[in-house]
Amino acid sequence: xxxxxxxxxxxxxxxxxxxxxxxxxxxxxxxxxxxxxxxxxxxxxxxxxxxxxxxxxxxxxxxxxxxxxxxxxxxxxxxxxxxxxxxxxxxxxxxxxxxxxxxxxxxxxxxxxxxxxxxxxxxxxxxxxxxxxxxxxxxxxxxxxxxxxxxxxxxxxxxxxxxxxxxxxxxxxxxxxxxxxxxxxxxxxxxxxxxxxxxxxxxxxxxxxxxxxxxxxxxxxxxxxxxxxxxxxxxxxxxxxxxxxxxxxxxxxxxxxxxxxxxxxxxxxxxxxxxxxxxxxxxxxxxxxxxxxxxxxxxxxxxxxxxxxxxxxxxxxxxxxxxxxxxxxxxxxxxxxxxx
Length: 340
Fold this sequence. Notes:
The chain is built from 13 helices and 11 strands. The chain has helices at about 5-20, 25-30, 40-50, 70-80, 85-100, 105-120, 170-185, 190-195, 205-220, 230-235, 245-255, 255-265, 315-340; strands at about 55, 65, 120-125, 130, 135-145, 145-155, 160-165, 225-230, 275, 290-300, 300-310. The strands form 3 sheets. Strands 3, 4, 8, 9, 10 and 11 form a 6-stranded antiparallel sheet that branches. It has a 3-stranded antiparallel sheet with strand order 5-6-7, covered by helices on one side. By secondary structure, it is α+β, with helices and mostly antiparallel strands.
């Protein structure tokens, strides 16, 4: 643990480095911090911070920059000091969202734009997803004598398709009969509810039912929708990513929406804000980045994710407060839609 003086100096280093992206020296801290300490005293304390791994110094005689460990200590120590979104800002954000009426897709895009512009980094927002998919309509379309296409429409306008090969020839009229029967039996049901149905089915009908259950179960395994990403230009403007290799690695990861979604799935455990810093991220491309993310929605019914990605030199207080505020607004909006 750091003593009070060391913690204050570390906070000064992190604050100055977040603002300037340049190593912070003892003289600058003595001049600007208001701690009333001499440069020599601050230098000694900085040496201890370096020994303990809270800062690193690119050059022996130069200033210090925070390490991942230093940022982690800083984030954990924010506590009640986390920058809070003002009432005026909250009212403005709520007004902007309600201008979009009930267009969930537009809400998602608006949340990403507002978050990206506020924190000046990359925003990641997923469309709200129901925890359990439900059937809206299904159709079987004959392609060949024993080959058909299952077209499954779920709530939230999700369309799933799968080829089914039957052991016997099936006409379109026969497939229409099965389609109509299943639309009557399974409308608005989840896949466990479909399995629980007691009605006796023919072998062909069982094959169709099993295909429907497989598609729905696979859909439910995905906790989040594919993310909408906004503000890549913000991260490209950061001095940390002036090096071509680092820049390409981060952009490449952000373009792989399935990887970003899997990352959210792994990171978001339980409620509240999650902050991953540098090497805490599993992906190599994220080792120089931090992620601030949270869930939104209706517990047990609808979930989405909202967060920000940027260099480890991130304004954590602003990022945490903004993600929390917009996440709460998205939860309220989701409640209006899905509870109405």
